[in-house]
Amino acid sequence: MEGGRVNLESVHAVIPAGGAGTRLWPLSRQSRPKFLLDLTGAGRTLLQQTYDRLAEIVPPDQIHVVTGPAHAPLVQEQLPDLGGLFVEPSPRDSMPAIGLAAAVLARRQPGAIIGSFAADQVITDTAGFARSFRQAVAVAEAGMIATIGIEPRSPSTAFGYIESGDLLDVADAPSARAVSRFVEKPDAATAAEYVRSGSFSWNAGMFVGRTDMLLGHLARLQPHLHAGLERIALAWDTPDRQRELEDTWPTLTPIAIDHAIAEPVSLEGGIAVVPGAFDWDDLGDFAALHALGNAGSSDTVWVDGSGYAHAEDGTTIAVVGIHDAIVVRTDDALLVTTMEHAQQVKEVPAALKRDGRTDLV
Amino acid sequence: MEGGRVNLESVHAVIPAGGAGTRLWPLSRQSRPKFLLDLTGAGRTLLQQTYDRLAEIVPPDQIHVVTGPAHAPLVQEQLPDLGGLFVEPSPRDSMPAIGLAAAVLARRQPGAIIGSFAADQVITDTAGFARSFRQAVAVAEAGMIATIGIEPRSPSTAFGYIESGDLLDVADAPSARAVSRFVEKPDAATAAEYVRSGSFSWNAGMFVGRTDMLLGHLARLQPHLHAGLERIALAWDTPDRQRELEDTWPTLTPIAIDHAIAEPVSLEGGIAVVPGAFDWDDLGDFAALHALGNAGSSDTVWVDGSGYAHAEDGTTIAVVGIHDAIVVRTDDALLVTTMEHAQQVKEVPAALKRDGRTDLV
Fold this sequence. Notes:
2 copies of one chain form a homodimer. The first copy, chain A, is of the alpha/beta class. The first copy, chain A, has helices at residues 46-55, 72-78, 94-108, 126-141, 188-197, 211-221, 223-236, 241-248, 257-267, 286-291, 347-354, and strands spanning 11-16, 63-67, 84-87, 113-116, 145-150, 161-167, 177-183, 200-210, 271-276, 301-303, 307-311, 316-320, 325-329, 333-338. Chain A folds into 2 domains: 11-276, Spore Coat Polysaccharide Biosynthesis Protein SpsA, Chain A; 295-360, no CATH class. The first copy, chain A, has 11 helices and 14 strands. In chain A, the strands form 3 sheets. Chain A has a 5-stranded mixed beta barrel, surrounded by 4 helices. Chain A has a 3-stranded mixed β-sheet with strand order 11-13-14. The N and C termini of chain A lie far apart (46 Å). Chain A binds chain B through residues 25-26, 301, 303-305, 309, 311, 315-322, 325, 327, 329, 331-338, 340-341, 344-345, 347-348, 351-352, 357, 360, and chain B through 25-26, 301, 303-304, 309, 311, 315-322, 325, 327, 329, 331-338, 340-341, 344-345, 347-348, 351-352, 357, 360. Chains A, B: Keywords: Nucleotidyltransferase, Transferase. Chains A, B: This is Mannose-1-phosphate guanylyltransferase. Chains A, B: InterPro entries: GMPP_N (IPR049577), ManC/GMP-like_b-helix (IPR054566), Mannose-6P_isomerase_type2 (IPR051161), NTP_transferase_dom (IPR005835), Nucleotide-diphossugar_trans (IPR029044).
């Protein structure tokens, strides 16, 4: 097996499964968010596809999901062989979620490595993903935090970027480079410049690190958050888990792993990036879904029209005179827009929420 | 009462209720066409509104509907006080339909006058309509065939036009003029010229005439059709009605009253036009429905969008980034288009028919 010298015995995959996917309304709802849906028509939900991809690399009992209480039952139903389920009482962004898993797994298996991968991304080249994953594990074994940077297919303004610097000399990670900096979603001109330079990749939010390193960075950079996570981890495998969660979780600093660790540690030279040469999409909106080759599921009549049309109830859709249309029908709602306005769809659940139509959000 | 000298005792109103309204798909279907729907949200269907308008002028037992067997039950349900129902075994255009009513009523009441008015038109100024109707009856009493020409609000290319000539000298019809000619739907430049000239009106297909005059014209111009209608009329109020209908109806020439009588008789100077100064719309498509002030029925969320959105099932519609949109949702179908393409909607049921989806047509 390629990269076979990398030891995966102590490697755990953590899938933070949060986020509503409001730009995929009305398919994606608070009660059945994006990751619980089979958006690609693969017969597996995005969460299941994420799990399947990781289960080719690590054993199922080393795969864990962090999610909220509302989604825990469906997660368990969709992933019956899952190693562990971390139920966070309320969403407090990605650092508390990943930090909780890190703190608990570090106590159970000192020196454990965790890799964190979002629940709602699509990758079909699982072998390519596995190759990058193994290099990232090698980097983690060497004591750095690794991220996988996706080779950009286009100067997208929908993603953050990672600038890579010098090649590192890490055993079994020949492509790993130091991260110069993480940058937020750029404007179009800047994105084009990034892609032209050849030294930028898309930030897919994939992080791999030794739990002791992650927790060490956290103790330095976010001591309050670290202390709270350690208290919860101490109680986790005892009868006190629920009480400690209830007491401490609401006090944790809500912060993303990018801001808590990735960005500050990159400035210290502690983050490495491994290139991801595989296809990757975060299915951010219906235009992304359509670009992936999904034309919807219903028998649509297109008269001087084109785009994505999907009726969950199988009813016939007719589109007349609109190109690049997006039409999505559920039993209780209907979205009509165009590819150009796909990102604006998030304003619909926001407006419904303001109007008290929480049943539709 | 204005125009009180006009005698309405022998005046019958005939409502040909055919036509599918394919440009109003998916609301309008073969099984529940346009005229059976409450498209204006008035609480009354278009057929009922047509009946109501006529019942202000003539007694209900002098109002008749000509329709097909599939729609007869709903017509009777919607109009319980209707004077008479003529069920045509199959649609053969407007001349056989109106001619049948004329032939039967002429036998029952020699010298009867009939006025024919489509079942799917909208007029809110019923007093204005009544004034024109009375002048048209006065013209009919004088032996001419009268039409009501709608004063054009715009240089529409969706309607045929009537060119009026010299003022006639008919008692109780001071505004009646001879018809110079009927013209088909013009192009935009011609329509603009028509409206500028001041001597053209829209052809709303409203005809009023003495039954003996109508049947006389028919005997001259369409002798075969006339003979067939007379045979059916002779049997109508006898046990032979159904047999005669079955034998003769399928042999009748399918032709519109415009081509059978209005156009040829106008060339002989036998048609008069009475101005219609009231509001009028034939609700030809969803753009017309919207122009009438109908914005749809559902609680629509418009984000950078506008237009007509209607969900028959009351579900929430969201339109993002499309202006002048048309969105119509029924339990089994969905139409998405724009005002600009409203006329093209008829291509959808045509395409469905070709595909054998007769359940949706």
